[in-house]
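INFO  loader      accepted 1 record
INFO  loader      residues=291
INFO  predictor   begin
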Amino acid sequence: MKHLLSRIEKMMPGFSKGQRRIAQYIEDHYDKAAFMTASKLGATVGVSESTVVRFATEVGYDGYPQLQKAMQEMIRNKLTSVQRIEVTSNRIGDADVLDSVLNQDIDKIRRTLEETSHKDFYEAVDAIVSARKIYILAARSASALGIFLNYYFSLIFDKVELVTTTSKTEIYEKMFRINEEDVFIGISFPRYSKQAVSAMNFAKRKGARGIALTDSLLSPLAQQADFVLLARSDMASVVDSLVAPLSLINAMIVATALKKKDEVSKTFQNLEEIWDEYEVYEKVEEDPVEA
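INFO  predictor   done
INFO  writer      dumping tokens
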């Protein structure tokens, strides 16, 4: 944050009148500017879109998307719930809410596919498959992702521990046996959970391999991890968008299941028999075919 703002302040005397408008708006409202297109930012301050693009290159970026990303990093982990509501309202404006939210989620999955490391993904899958025990910790709104991952991994693997974050003591009580044969999967998105970061650091001190499922290489969860799986979330939405992280988790489950295909097939065959015997699922009769 200081780097971008100090650079703008230092260069202010040399800016044109239009560039000074942009600079002043970013200094005062970077939490809003970070989610504006170049066109919208230009319209807001009364300059052309091309002026905004030239401003981005003037302050040292390859283009406006890089400047926008820098502004988003400035506010990462800083937006309050009230600010989120305001930014969401400004972003959607008069557009259809359903169309807007779904299209934003589609974009998050696309950007996740572009940005996450395939190398880290497949090496993380290998580490999970070969681990003695798998520990999963997902904090706050991301806890739903941990529950989902734990449900399927518990069907695929013998030893899976979902570490709850209800108390610090319970976290380390569940993890005190973790060692170099194990894997720790930490899941957290802005605003980042101190408990998730602390647990990742603890796992690494005990020699376990760490897998971070988070949104940025700048995430504190990623600093100690052996493998970083990046999934786009939305720190400025009223709610945390978990569509892209869930899609990445789905890929992780499928990849591990295929690594243990024969064993998993037998497991699910046995489970199907149990589910049928105890009528776990409601049977839906097919419509009779008309003669």
